[in-house]
Write a structure and sequence with these properties.
This protein has 12 helices and 14 strands. A hairpin with an 8-residue loop joins strand 13 and strand 14. Helix 5 packs parallel to helix 6 and helix 10 packs parallel to helix 12. It is globular. Bound molecules: pyridoxal-5'-phosphate.
Amino acid sequence: MTDAVQTPHPTIAPRPGVLSIAPYVGGESKAPGANRVIKLSSNENPLGPSPRAIEAFKAAADKLPLYPDGGATGLRRTIAEVKGLDAGHIVCGAGSDELISLLCYAYAGPGDEVLYSQHGFLMYKISALAAGATPVSAPETNLTTDVDAMIAAMTERTRLVFIANPNNPTGTMLNRAKLERLADALPPKALLVLDGAYAEYVRDPDYEAGERLVEARDNVVMTRTFSKIYGLAALRLGWAYAPGHVADVLNRVRGPFNVNIPAAMAGEAAMRDVDYTDHCAVQNEVWRDWLAKKLGEAGAPCTVSNANFVLAEFGEQGPKCAPAADAFLKAGGLIVRRMEGYGLPAHLRITIGDEAACRAVADAVARFMAA
Ligand SMILES: Cc1ncc(COP(=O)(O)O)c(C=O)c1O
């Protein structure tokens, strides 16, 4: 089996832009030679999904011969009920990645621009290129989305503006007032997409994932995922909350059965288990803040993270650089994420694992820095 990059065919070519995509590389999961492996490279929930979601997934085995409900009606109703939203404005997808990509296909094409911040989530660029649109990135300030720089980068060709809030991989966030300023500045043909993949982890009282903005305006969309705090990354499940005209467009372009039955059943159960979700958020906050402090004390300072990972700075070169730290951690079975793909070669992104994982990372980084 080979998945190496191939040389382009002389006559059969995809649409312009497609071959300039650098394929997304997911977090590694192997550490050759290590006798135990702790994967902290993909921001998965170390506590796993709610036990009720696992039960629901098992119950879905009886339904394998059946096509799913194409409208994911039960799941949309559950999300609406638990979150206090209008089910008619929810569209579900096979991961929020699918919704990001559908938004690009539906709203941006050749000659159009898709805007995101300098260290924004990589799928925005990939999906923009796949749709034939032009990706545009605006500089950040202190590894945080800079609203003025984003506004300065908007043109009459801007069709989509993506903000991951909090952002992956920086962990930083924009408050409600800043989001409103951004929404106020949108050119007439542009949609603002607030990607709340990590929304459930945020504790800042000035934070809004986007629900109220979506309800108050006709040019703001919010996307969410079941892959992070709900612990269901394997099932590929996400949802968007959108103005009616955008929900209608997404429903036209999505696959007719894009959400499978096991995902929908597990997602409903996970969404209803609010106590479990809260428990995961509290655990994450405790260990995230503990780990950030320990890494800072060891000489690898972290941004203030609002998500389930920290972004630690090691340096680009020299004996204590990020690649050397990564190699040291990997030798001990700790798999974290290198950040060259995000233009952050001096940093490593480390998912907040359980207590044992956080202690193991803190201990390893302290030993590495002291050696
Ligand atoms: C900011 C952000 N948005 C979206 C996603 C995609 O999540 P999903 O698993 O729902 O496709 C991720 C996953 O890492 C993410 O970090």
